[in-house]
Amino acid sequence: MLKALRYLKQNLIFVILIYVLVQLIYISFFPVKYQSDSYYYYKLAEDCIKSNSFYPAQNHLYEDYIVAPLYVNLLVIILNINNSTFTIGLFNIILNLLQLFLVYKVSNIIFGKDAAQISILIYIFYLNNLGLVLLNYTELIFGVLVFASVYFYLRKRKYSNIWAGVFAGASIGVRPLGWALLAAYAAIYIYYLFRKIYEHKEIFKLIIGASAFIILFGLFNSIHFGKFIYTSTTGSINLLMGANDNATGAFVLLADLKTDPGYIPDKENKTYIERDEIWRTRALNWIKAHPVKWISLIPLKFGYIFLWDDIAISPLMNLQDWDLFHVAKYLIINKNTKGLMPRSNLVEKISYLCLQTFHYIFYIILVFLIIKGLIHFKKNHGFNYHPDTIGIILFCVTGIFLTSLIYGVPRYKYPFLISLLPFAAFEIAEFIRDGRKKFQTL
Q1: What is the pLDDT of residue 438?
Q2: Of 86, 102, 158, 345, which has the maximum CB count within 10 A?
Q3: Mean pLDDT of the chain, nearest integer
Q4: pLDDT tens digits for 309-329?
Q5: Other CB atoms closer than 10 Å to residue 211's CB: what's the count?
Q6: What is the dihedral of CA 117, 352, 36, 125, to 10 degrees?
Q7: Alpha carbons 309 and 305: distance in angstroms, whole number
Q8: Are 311 and 131 in contact (CB under 8 A)?
Q9: Could you give the CA distance from residue 337 to residue 361 in angstroms, rounded to a whole number?
Q10: Which helix (H) or strand (E) holds 43?
């Protein structure tokens, strides 16, 4: 195993080139049909192109919510260049490679070259990163912006914190979860104050960078939409999904039927602002009336988020309607395989289950290494070794807490898993280093 790892490290450039080639083959010859959020983002961008507008366009005033405005506007730009899902695939490859590069750079700053090289291999063999290239989600762009912010924050150059703030503000333009990153920076600043290390200028630069992006992007949207919009407005509907009589901790449809908790009479005549207010009021009223039940759903949310990991594995075999959880559920309920993946032959089913099994084992090992790496780092070095390292951890802790307030799906852990990936690489690098020391003493 160690020999294989050493060989891959020595031939990283070829591994990366093969990875790029595989991505190009997938988007060229094995594209998938967009569904769910992938289709919705594409539809929003198409609406804007037809109306010759950026997002949100005027007709989006009566949508359920505004979602990922920065990402959808990027889609508008690239689809205006060439209106094809293949173009989105190319854009995703660029984002995937940028995120890979930034994971390497951050790992190198904190843990050194060995861990940084190992982080590249972990990233490549974590197959969700490959599968996301086929889809149209916000995970890749959000990860790039978060890691770009962390990278500039760790560089400690004259204007680095301004750029760290800009990228943090941009991440908020994709997902409100970006606020967790700014909260982490604020916590580090407070930590420095307690240690009588005064970083007033640096936190001020962060605030300037983030504020500049948010204000400019909000003003840009107000020009074509008439309202100051800089982030998603999905918070209320997400909160309601985890705060109603039918809540299970997972995603559920809320507004299709009159009996659904999210149903709004005459909804088509209400703006996204009015709908947001109605959903927020319903969610908060339910939480006040059922605080124990709401809290009791949190373990279930964690289960839905962390117990399985098919974020983008099924699209690799063009089986988006299935994942390991649904396969297991089907087998338990039906006790046979007759209706299992009915459009696939036996070889495809076996291949799919092997792929899922490999990935799930990889995922479990990755989580184990992350936890062990965090413990090892704290025990051997302490966060005084690199105090800013705690910012990554605080971002993840804060983000997971905020996620627990809504509902759970595997996708929601992606930014945290990728953010903590360098700690898994650090653990492997330390294991190899310790092994070498023991061998030399023999």
Answers
A1: 64
A2: 102
A3: 92
A4: 989 999 999 888 887 778 888
A5: 13
A6: 0
A7: 8
A8: yes
A9: 23
A10: helix 36-50
Of 283, 313, 276, 312, the closest CA to residue 407 belongs to 283
User: With pLDDT > 70 as the criterion, what percentage of the chain qualifies?
Assistant: 96
Cis check: omega of the bond before 176, within 30 degrees of 0: no
Q: Is 347 exposed, middle or buried (CB count within 10 Å of its CB: 0-12, 13-18, 19+)?
A: exposed
**What's the one-letter identity of residue 188?**
I
Q: Is the pLDDT of residue 440 over 80?
A: no
Helix, strand and coil in the chain, % to nearest 5 = 75, 0, 25
Residue pair 225/56 in contact by the 8 Å Cβ criterion = yes
Q: How far is CA 311 from CA 194, 320, 335, 358, in A?
A: 40, 10, 26, 14
| 3-class state of residue 250 by DSSP | strand
Residue 407: phi and psi, rounded to 5, are -145, 170
Per-residue confidence (pLDDT) for residue 437, from 0 to 100: 67
Predicted local distance difference test score (pLDDT) of residue 149: 97
Q: Is pLDDT at 441 greater than 60 in this prediction?
A: no
Q: What are phi and psi of 251, to 5 degrees?
A: -70, 135
